């Protein structure tokens, strides 16, 4: 003889097969021609039966019976997902080390250094006594201030420009994104410094190839003001960066 539990099981199976939501307790009572109390007891028995079969019981809350997640297809998919999760090996992220830049930078530094020093000597930069009357033997060739100032500032401005931007989140809590004003100043001055360096290299090699030992006065004038201009640019950029940090 077919029991209420069998009729409830059949009604739930038909709803699942047709892709329809499971009927609530009142609808099950109407379909099985049983009382709601009998339907409730049948649902509880079905839950216990599914729990004993390692399934997830359908929750009976109020007047609705929630669909069970003991579907074999879902269980198989969950098992496969769990296996993939447990067997997947964590990928190790190796830090990016741009070692080719060392070779490229070394070659460029030698060429740029020789060009700036040669241009400085043609423009009147030479050996001076740093501490006359105090340490007369301490001498320095001032031509080296040109590559140290111009190229070092260009690298610094590039770092500020391409480093931390407003759209980039800093990994350090002590570092804040740069303002648009700072980025514009760094971008403009970096490009200008690189352009000045390129023009200076061209000027030196042209004069050297032509046999010049002294640069024309317009070039001497421009080369003489370069350290002062770079000092002003570096001070202004450092102040802008400091304002961004403490704002």
TrEMBL record:
Transmembrane segments: 99-123, 143-164, 185-207, 219-241
InterPro entries (alphabetical): MFS_trans_sf
Keywords: Membrane, Transmembrane, Transmembrane helix
Region annotation (Disordered) ranges: 1-32, 46-94
Biased composition annotated in UniProt, kind: Basic and acidic residues: 22-32
Domain of life: Bacteria
Protein's name according to its UniProt entry: Uncharacterized protein
